């Protein structure tokens, strides 16, 4: 199976504070990685380094054997916070078409519009194409933004808290949609239920990164619930 992401001895600091220390990771085609850890543990910083949005200070990242900035065209990204000016009259289809933008590209083609429509279909929101983005619920908006990421036709999808501020039913729907996508996926989430939604690999980041690939098999849910304290003890045990 093709190795798509390779991280070696990655360290990153803000000022005198070390955010990430000696991170190593290999991800292969089709992997679905959940990144978990405390606030301030370095999860979002790590994603930004993978995307080439931060300069690497020490260590190395290769994506398809290339520098992250060179590989950015192969990655669809859903950031944690997207600020839309709700007074701006932008339609759903126009938002999704943004996924087809490239440097120096001024116009959308018929092929772009066809791909954008297919992405909306896949996310189950094609019927909202003419709706203003400001008129959507939180769950609908996330589906549209996922469609925008998919419109890029990426080989890797990176998502930072994709179910934040969405009700429980909406979260389940987003998890089901993500599970069905064939691309390699990296998802940062505070919702530990992500571990039961198709991920095959788990990493805990708190400055250092520790893989917990057998974690999902160890955890048992009782009537759809499990004890997060028990999970924390498992992680601590593996990290020791």
Description of the structure:
- By secondary structure, the protein is of the alpha/beta class.
- The chain has one domain: P-loop containing nucleotide triphosphate hydrolases (Rossmann fold), CATH 3.40.50.300.
- 31% of the residues lie in helices and 25% in strands.
- Strands 5-6-7-3-8-9 form a six-stranded mixed beta sheet, sandwiched between helices. It has a three-stranded antiparallel beta sheet with strand order 2-1-4, with helices on one face.
- It is globular and about 50 Å long.
Identify the notable features of this structure and list them briefly.
Rossmann fold; six-stranded mixed sheet; 240 residues; alpha/beta; 9 strands; three-stranded antiparallel sheet; 8 helices
What's this entry about, in short?
The protein is of the alpha/beta class and 240 residues long. The protein is built from eight helices and nine strands.
CATH superfamily: P-loop containing nucleotide triphosphate hydrolases
The number of domains = 1
Structural class: alpha/beta
> For the terminal residues, how far apart are their CA atoms?
30 Å
User: What's the average pLDDT?
Assistant: 86
- Work out the strand percent: 15-25%
Strand order of the largest sheet: 5-6-7-3-8-9
Q: Identify the overall geometry.
A: globular
Computed over alpha carbons, the radius of gyration is 18 Å
Question: Can you give the helix content as a percent range?
Answer: 25-40%
Output the CATH class name: Alpha Beta
Number of helix segments?
8
User: Tally of extended strands?
Assistant: 9
Q: Uncertain runs with pLDDT below 50, 5 residues or more?
A: none
Reported by name, the CATH topology is Rossmann fold
What is the architecture at the second tier of CATH?
3-Layer(aba) Sandwich
Largest sheet composition: 6 strands, mixed
H/E series: EEEHEHEHHHEHEEEHH
